[in-house]
Amino acid sequence: MSEEKAGRSVGKKLVVLLIIVFLALAAAAYFFGAYYFSSHFLPGSRVNGFNCSYMTVPEAEELLSAKAEAFVLEIHTRGNGVEGISAKEIGLHYVSDGSVKELMKKQDRYKWFLAFNQNKSYEVERSIEYDKEKLAQAVRQLDCMQEENNIPPADAYIKETAAGFEIVPETEGTTLKRKAVQQLIAKAMSTGTSSVNLEKAGCYLAPKVYQDDKNLVKECRQINKLTSVVITYDFADRTERVDKDLIKTWLVKNKKGNYVLDREKVAAFVNELGYKYDTFGCTRTFLTYDGREKTITGGDYGWAIDQEGETEALMKAIQNGKTQVREPVYAYEGWSRASNDIGDTYVEIDLTNQRMLFYKDWLLMVDTPVVTGSPDVLGNETPEGCFAIDGMKSPAVLTGEGYAQAVTYWMPFAGNVGIHDASWRSDFGGSIYVFNGSHGCVNTPYDQAKIIYENIGIGAPVVVYK
User: Fold this and answer.
1) Considering Cα of 140, then 143, then 149, then 155, what sign does the dihedral take?
2) Active site residue 420
3) What is residue 168's predicted lDDT score, i.e. its pLDDT?
4) What's the longest Cα–Cα distance across the chain?
């Protein structure tokens, strides 16, 4: 029993001795490492991009010097281009100024055992020298810096095509920011960076507007919506077209930056329509029953576009994207919208020959002598011009200064002047109007007035001439 206990005691002592030896060796290894790395770089140490692990300061400086003399900077340009500047071109060399020694002093050598998986990079700019003027000259001589090789950037923009409007993508270009390039290359030379990428470093001038710019996309959409409309004005035998080519000239930006219709330009177009197609009160050429060409002026018959109303209607039609065939909003309307707006149903009164004719759909229904206003009595002469029947009444009582006369058919066309039957007369035509004319009205045989009254309507043209 005592021998067994003695054996156990020896074993324990042996284990304790081994632990003490191991701890002593570990302590010795630790302090040796701490001492060693007081003059050597820790594992994973890179100075100016070069691996200096386990090197002394002189060894590291010798490496840096050798690498500096052989250094060539790769300059990657847009479009996969590559250029280079060598140390020899700019007189680049390593200068020992204590920077590497300072780096070594700053490393935590007491944690050297944790450094085997580290990757520590240092840059010592002061240890590299070069001729700044030679570097500037080398940079200026790069192909990418030549004016003839520089394409300026261009913004994305909206372009008109046959189908509408589309966004043309921006042009990146190849124009460099010269100062930024100089600074980037100088820093790379100082730190030993082996390559630089001018595009990634943001050295190129950039467009201000790209194809995915929200405002540009919005503007293109607005323009396409407004210009995709086709509006055709129908003037019977003539048409006017409002389409993309015209609408695009009416577009302006409002204060919010949105494309809208310029009301003044739309109004100007509607005004042009009025000049071209309005006939209200205008001079006309009229072919008489006996083949004479008469110039008719005055009167209130014809067409006149409502300028305000049509401007508003046209703008709404475009804004709503409604392609359509339309008539303008009219302030005054005639019976025919053709070039000859008198059309095929009208009354023709020849004052000189005291003759009145009525055509309906080109069919002559009335050809009768009449008595018109007295030309020698002030205010009684029947007015000339092209008028519109503006009322119809049967029976009616005509009143004036000193008279009141009942008639069966009354069709006024110029205020108190109109066509009516005159049962008190037994004769019509000839020169009766000279010495026994009316107060301005067209006195008509009863049966002929009846035919006209029953076949005409309000708004029908009445052409009066001498």
Assistant:
1) negative
2) yes
3) 97
4) 177
Indicate the helix (H) or strand (E) that contains 87. Answer: helix 87-90
| Alpha-carbon gap, residue 220 to 240, rounded angstroms | 27
Residues 6+ apart with CB under 8 A from 100: 47, 57, 60, 61, 64, 124, 127
In the DSSP assignment, the letter for residue 167 is E
As a whole number of angstroms, the distance between CA 128 and CA 61 comes to 11
Q: Is 441 a catalytic residue?
A: yes
User: Can you name the residues that pair with 404 across neighbouring β-strands?
Assistant: 399
Q: Give 376's contacts (C-beta < 8 A, 6+ positions apart).
A: 434
Least confident of 20-24, 232-236, 410-414, 417-421: 20-24
Q: What is the CA radius of gyration of the chain?
A: 52
Region 356-379: what's the mean pLDDT? 96
pLDDT, average across residues 134-150: 94
Active-site position among 52, 144, 386, 441 = 441
What is the token pair recorded at 196?
Answer: 């630089």
Indicate the pTM of the whole model: 0.71
Higher-confidence residue of 80 and 50: namely 80
**Which of 40, 203, 420, 439 is the catalytic position?**
420
At 6 the pLDDT is 63
Dihedral (CA of 132, 138, 141, 143) sign:
negative
DSSP string for residues in 282-330: --EEEE-TTS-EEEE---S-S-EE-HHHHHHHHHHHHHTT--EEEPPPE
CA distance 38 to 57: 10
